[in-house]
C-alpha cells in the first residue's frame, strides 16, 4: 500500500481513512438497526427484540388450513422426545464402525507368524 509516495511502514494512521465497505463489513451503526444486520447472542441466536414483527395470516401450510399446529413429522423433523435416542443411535453406529475399521487395520498390521518347525 502506498499513500502519497510512502510505503506502508511510513504511513501514519491519521493519513489513512477506510470504511467498513472497503473490507466487505457492515458499519457498526447498522448492527441491530432496521435495514441493517441482526446481532447475535453468544449462542448464535438473534435476540427476540430484533426480528421484525410478522403480521397477517396464511391460507394454508403443508396443505392444512385453519388454526394449524405443526408437528415435527409435518416438516420432516425428529420429535424432541426422540432426539436423544437418535443421537445415541448415531454414536453407537460411529463407535461400531470405528471398532470394525481398527480391527481390520490391526489385523493387517499384526499377522501372526507361523511357529518355527522343530528340527
What would you say this structure looks like, in words?
25% of the residues lie in helices and 0% in strands. By secondary structure, it is mainly α. The protein has a domain at 77-110. The N and C termini lie far apart (82 Å). The model has no long low-confidence stretch (mean pLDDT 76).
Q: How would you summarize the topology of this molecule?
A:
Layout: H1 80-109
Could you provide a short overview of the structure?
By secondary structure, the chain is an all-alpha fold. The chain has one helix spanning 80-109.
**Content of β-strand:** under 5%
Q: What would you call the structural class?
A: mainly alpha
Number of strands: 0
Residue-averaged pLDDT: 76
**Helix share bin:** 25-40%
Taking Cα atoms only, what radius of gyration do you get, to the nearest Å?
Answer: 31 Å
Order of SSEs, N→C? H
**Annotation field: number of helices:** 1
Per the principal axes of the C-alpha atoms, what is the gross shape? flat
Low-pLDDT stretches: none
- Termini separation comes to 82 Å
**Which sheet architecture does the biggest sheet show?**
none
Properties at a glance:
single chain; 119 residues; 25% helix; mainly alpha
Amino acid at each position: 500500500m502506498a499513500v502519497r509516495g510512502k510505503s506502508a511502514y511510513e504511513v501514519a494512521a491519521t493519513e489513512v481513512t477506510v470504511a467498513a465497505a472497503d473490507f466487505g463489513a457492515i458499519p457498526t451503526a447498522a448492527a441491530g438497526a432496521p435495514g441493517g444486520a441482526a446481532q447475535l447472542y453468544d449462542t448464535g441466536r438473534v435476540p427476540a427484540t430484533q426480528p421484525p414483527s410478522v403480521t397477517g395470516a396464511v391460507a394454508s401450510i403443508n396443505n392444512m388450513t385453519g388454526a394449524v399446529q405443526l408437528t415435527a413429522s409435518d416438516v420432516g423433523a425428529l420429535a424432541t422426545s426422540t432426539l436423544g435416542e437418535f443421537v445415541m443411535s448415531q454414536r453407537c453406529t460411529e463407535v461400531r464402525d470405528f471398532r470394525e475399521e481398527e480391527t481390520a487395520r490391526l489385523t493387517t498390521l499384526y499377522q501372526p507368524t507361523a511357529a518355527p518347525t522343530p528340527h
